[in-house]
Amino acid sequence: MSDLRFDHDRARRTGLPEVVFGERKTREQLARALREQHAGAGYAFATRVAAADGPSLAAELPGARYDETARVVVCGGLPRSGVRVGVVCAGTSDLPVAAEAAATLDWLGHDVYRRYDAGVAGIHRILEARDDLERCRVVVVAAGMEGALPSVVAGLIGAPVIAVPTSVGYGASFGGLAALLAMLNACAPGIAVVNIDNGFGGAALAHKIVLARE
Fold this sequence. Notes:
The chain is an alpha/beta fold. The protein is about 35% helix and about 20% strand. It has two domains: about 10-75; about 85-210, Rossmann fold (3-Layer(aba) Sandwich). The strands form two sheets. The protein has a five-stranded parallel sheet.
């Protein structure tokens, strides 16, 4: 039996195509999965692809590219929705998680507004972005350390906020657990929380929120 069975019907059933998760797959497994997705749908997307494999995998598909910061291979994408979705991160150290979310949302067809390095240590940085964030249908916020930024954003705007804790911080952050617990206990209402470092999961939830209002 093959070790790869791609779910080509997932987009019809759920609105979200199957995406190739790159960690712990061999380069050949990744290449086969991407080729099969592209052959069936005309597009392909893989997350958590190592820098050692990304460029060569992208070279196997027409028009594909590798985003080293987001660690994704992207080929084509879904039709443009015209919907604006925000992606915010607290610090530059959170950027890989935010970039994964942004790349996923762009591939899913949305117009991505990015606001990076806007953490609470310099609260004016997120306040300056308030008007831009108000124009977003939903906002994904990635933060490590004490994980306060999603609560701040949710207290400023009316759109749903999806909080993504990151494994950024000193020892007592416990690899993102402190941020995760803080986000689950956020004071501001209207926040959903996904798993640590799961930028893709945050983007997937944002996409589902957009679909629910179409």
